[in-house]
Specification:
4 copies of one chain form a homotetramer. By secondary structure, the first copy, chain A, is of the alpha/beta class. Chain A has 2 domains: 122 residues, 3-Layer(aba) Sandwich (Rossmann fold), CATH 3.40.50.720; 164 residues, Dihydrodipicolinate Reductase, domain 2. In chain A, 33% of the residues lie in helices and 20% in strands. Chain A is built from 12 helices and 14 strands. In chain A, the strands form 2 sheets. In chain A, strands 3-2-1-4-5-7-6 form a 7-stranded parallel beta sheet, sandwiched between helices. Chain A has a 7-stranded mixed beta sheet with strand order 9-10-8-11-14-13-12. In chain A, α8 packs parallel to α10 and α8 packs across α11. At the A-B interface, β8, β9, β10, β11 and β13 of A face β8, β9, β10, β11 and β13 of B.
Chain lengths: 344, 344, 344, 344
């Protein structure tokens, strides 16, 4: 059994990691930490866990000491020193924050306002999107787990980017995320009466996931890609829907593009390319590690429209992190992730 | 007191018309009709009206006979003959359906599959968007009340279109509508457990409001405009958010564009251009006739992003229809529409 | 025009008072205060008011000075000294908090942990439930506006209590309130992902509205009444549903009890007794000052079941406060409160 | 591997059975039937299952032929003949409908309007509430799976009923159910805009689960129990909260009653008695087989208040049915039911 530890276990992604790891056939939850709730049982914070996992929240050092693999779910800037310690102790480290996602230190500085303090550490980081970088992940010890929006977008765009069928300058991404994406911390925006029966974009063309999205699309397309990215806060608990627009370089039948996607993703357990005529809906992937993708062409304007949906807490965070853990330890990639999405 | 009648009063737009007209200081509800519920009091169908308006649902002929102005809220194709009768009887007619919105009969045939049977009638129709076509409406007897999506989009785009600052071929509109937009009729999609905690686009690049959107934008821009339009079903009762993307012909500071919008809409009671840095949210216009607009520029890609929000049932349907009625009869344009939007 | 001022205008009840008073034909909003947001326009806090009411938030003294009537919406204990000042200045005072609801100082001390500091002041207080105490209110200067739960319960129980048909010791009240009832302040309980798709009671048999409920029921019944009262947090923005159970002293046909209710409430504009066979639903009173009541009898157990629904922010707070203002100033009781409840 | 078949697989309980059985380590989904969708893959009806289970919907006979155990989820009256066939073929039968829950044929006739056609069949039926009737179930071939409301109520009341501490005539049950409880069929009540931001009771003191509730409580208490039961429709997808009120025969400290509950349920995996001071919330059991129970005493009125929450589709339907299957076949009782409830 792999011993897994979670630093920042009382955030939403941390709790979701608990839930998934508790059902993992080849891993056990060895330790959990929290700054705010140290000394309490995690089931006091999340009564859903009562009687199932009543582990006491400890400190970060103890998590590193007791675990083979450490998941960190922390505000940016806090994971870097912990990763260093964990790797020094021969452990593997999967960061669910933003500290190890960006290859270019300048991007990190521009969008997060901090600098990489240990460049050597970042040289070894791998971007943990298994469907795209599986081989690299399997050999790594330090994984930057992708952001929720970038996951939905990279999976939605990869086949088209690789095929080079799109005008790279034309990509517009209109994403909508459930409220768990904003985390457990309180804010007026996520106060129920302010958030329920409400809807609006936020951080319009200024969200920190933008450079991460562009990094992957550029890598896939083999050219520098700049996108317009606008996220919206959706009054549901879970799920991301990314509606992605891009101009086709030349006219292509939707059937051809669909075939391209089926070819690219046909062998992937967790990516489901819907039949033509169907439209992806977040309700079909909730509480699961699946990404559903539907393909549409606006023949009147020559644009491809891709709809890509995931559960932001599973494929967009904790589930993908466990998928990465499986790769790091040579386990079956889907171990612990076979949850069938409930229909309602 | 203007005598107002409603044909199709038990649909959602019909009921909302009742609600608004019951509070109108210079109009009275003279008659209401329904095919499904004829003979019943409308308050049996909508108990919210109980004791306030218990009028009995009659037939269409009676509504026409008893009213100075007839509102029709019917599936497309059914309003044309009624409008003919009403005009022949010297009444005014405001259609909340699609029968009198499109100038080009070919558009109607292509998107709705029907033909205009009485071309002379359509020669006299006016598109009822008061902020754009106020003078024409005031002189008309037959008004095609705009669709909900087109209203949010026309108000959001008019200043930029008129100023000619956009690449006309670059417009992409990602809209999200509350579930009342789908009407009172039952469907699996709008069954609560299928619709709650769910989200997806529908009729991707194929929605019937597309030609109506293009007609207005073309008129405003003075050139043929073709757009990509994708609507989504949003799990809230009311409201539309349109997030609109378009490339700027040349670099413009967001302040300049904002000034353009303030100049264009500054005198309009029902259009509120938010300060720079604010973002429009449907919660601030619910249950009111306001349209809130926020202006954003993505400097990295040279795109204008406009967020335009309305209540789909008020400014997007019944409220705008009453605004048109006020124009038709020379009443103060805001009469009966002074509802302050509740904050929650 | 009556000059109305609001102390604590940025709380939910305060904002709702603004909304209602802005539509009042015989009152104007003279001043608003807030401790947290003093110096800002209230429309910065509530953008729904933008362009409609951009009044700047001042201090309490200024509100008292500029108003004929002062509404206070504050935590308990803070209204008492303000009422004293207002009355001394010859103004009228309507408190939406708990400081002037309870006749027995011991109740206030037991449930709120404070003491009445100025007993003389309390001697003049009137409990502002117009349908029950209209005459007294009309003569008063100081009104304790009822709590939201007690309003729904008093209106639901008054006819039966007065008729003496119930076993006074048998009353059990199971109430459910929308989340605005918890106010604008942030808490984990009202954080969207914790509150959405969730439901539970709170303060089981220990809610501070209990003595207020008992005070009114005892007064109506002419004997000391003790009830079991359990509130629940309902994942909707607005509305209270009180399901009330009580044993009938002797067998009575539901028709007899219904007739009793029709007789008692038939002349009241804002209380609607539904027909037998119908069931009250909060959706029919949202955004309005109505209270809908349905009457049921469980013949198998000899119990009366009353369902009483209101909008907690209107009839349960701001609307009733305006109704009291109308009484205090001899205006038509329904002035400014004619809002037709929207059906959706 | 046990071969499990589902008749009525496209109803909500049927689909939930699929989801649970697909994750069961010792059972496989052998056949599924549907009258409405025969010939289609079930994943066409529920796209959440796409790629996971694309089994084609067949007829009832085929399900019986191919399965060791048949789950039926059908309107009342339809299961009786199918059970007969299944038992005749040597199969086991678990009915999620109402045909095998009531011991007294008169109850079935009174509340469901039908008669038991094969009394011999009913002689062998067992009421499938494992925590109460585990031994009987293990020996049976025909199980009447309990209703959702009765499950929450029986588990919430069993320790108190067995201890004889309650006045049997005083029990009042106020239950609230998520909308999946109303099933997949369309109705105006469950149309999103009619159901969202709405709340009301239904079938007040007239719900068909009443005799089932009374049957179990009478059995546990050793005396005839008649209750008042009022269900409410709660605008969430899943979950039941039953708030149960009963008078204590004599004064008892809440600690004593809590100890009674801990003693009764301490050994049960799926029943969690919360610590004193905590309150059960449906969000903590969603998507799981747990029942959370909190105990409260209203000392002022001498009443016990029990709050019992379950997921109506899991412990209230499909999960409990699988628990029964496990008992019928001698599998570990929790097999396939170890889902950790998500916290959000």
């Amino acid at each position: 059994m792999i011993k897994a530890g979670i630093i920042g276990a009382t955030g939403y992604a941390g709790e979701e990691l608990c839930r998934i790891l508790l059902g993992h056939p080849q891993a056990e939850l060895a330790a959990v930490s929290s700054v705010s709730f140290a000394g309490k049982a995690i089931s006091e914070v999340y009564p859903s866990l009562r009687g199932i996992f009543d582990g006491v929240l400890t400190g970060e050092e103890e998590v590193i000491a007791r675990s083979d693999v450490i998941f960190a779910s922390l505000p940016h800037g806090l994971s870097e020193p912990l990763a260093e310690k964990a790797l020094a102790a021969g452990k593997k480290f999967i960061d669910l924050g933003a500290d190890f996602r960006l290859d270019d230190p300048a991007d990190y500085t521009q969008w997060y306002g901090l600098e990489y303090k240990n460049p050597g550490l970042h040289a070894g980081q791998v971007y943990g999107l298994p469907e795209l970088y599986r081989e690299k992940i399997a050999k790594a010890s330090l994984v930057g787990n992708p952001g929720c929006y970038p996951t939905s977008i990279a999976l939605g765009m990869a086949p088209a980017m690789k095929a080079g069928i799109l005008d790279a300058g034309s990509i517009i991404i209109d994403s909508k995320s459930g409220v768990t994406g904003a985390g457990r911390g309180l804010s007026q925006t996520t106060h129920y009466p302010d958030c329920n029966e409400a809807f609006s974009p936020y951080k319009v063309a200024a969200h920190r996931h933008t450079p991460e999205i562009e990094q992957t699309l550029s890598d896939l397309g083999g050219e520098k890609v700049t996108v317009t990215f606008v996220p919206h806060l959706l009054p549901v608990n879970r799920g991301i829907v990314s509606t992605i627009y891009a101009s086709l370089k030349k006219e292509l039948a939707v059937e051809e593009i669909h075939a391209l996607y089926k070819a690219a993703w046909g062998g992937e357990k967790f990516v489901r390319v819907l039949d033509l005529g169907q439209t992806a809906n977040l309700k079909n992937v909730k509480y699961s590690n699946y990404c559903d993708i539907s393909i549409h062409v606006d023949g009147r304007t020559g644009r491809l429209i891709v709809v890509s949906v995931i559960d932001n807490m599973v494929k967009g965070a904790a589930g993908q992190a466990v998928q990465n853990m499986n790769l790091l330890f040579g386990l079956p990639e889907a171990a612990g992730l076979e949850m069938v999405p409930p229909a309602f």
